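RECORD TYPE: inverse folding
INPUT: structure tokens
STRUCTURE:
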């Protein structure tokens, strides 16, 4: 049973930082790319960041978060992280962890990130 559990969300002020975690189980974690999506109220879910399953640090980000967000993974802990810096109100959304182990999307329950003054 594939399971993804996000944590680390919360309420922060603009300019502050937050680190999200996604604990994974039910598949060979190190063999698959991992992704973070987010969905704001009234908007479509969008891919925020992805990290490859390879040895290197192959990552990708949407333009709005480049230079501010960093995705990383710890294969020993079977966890993927999203370090978010210089948060903006537009970053407010539910953040979801995603994996596609057998050509099927699996999602966590999501963790709420609210950026407000």
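DESIGNED SEQUENCE:
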């Amino acid at each position: 049973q594939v399971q993804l559990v996000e944590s680390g969300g919360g309420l922060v002020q603009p300019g502050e930082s937050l680190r999200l975690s996604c604990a994974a189980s039910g598949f060979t974690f190190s063999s698959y790319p991992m992704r973070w999506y987010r969905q704001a109220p009234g908007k479509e879910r969008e891919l925020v960041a992805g990290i490859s399953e390879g040895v290197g640090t192959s990552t990708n980000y949407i333009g709005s978060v480049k230079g501010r967000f960093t995705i990383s993974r710890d294969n020993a802990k079977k966890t993927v992280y999203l370090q978010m810096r210089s948060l903006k109100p537009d970053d407010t959304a539910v953040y979801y962890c995603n994996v596609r182990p057998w050509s099927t999307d699996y999602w966590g329950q999501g963790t709420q990130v609210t950026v407000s003054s």
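NOTES: The chain has a mean pLDDT of 96.
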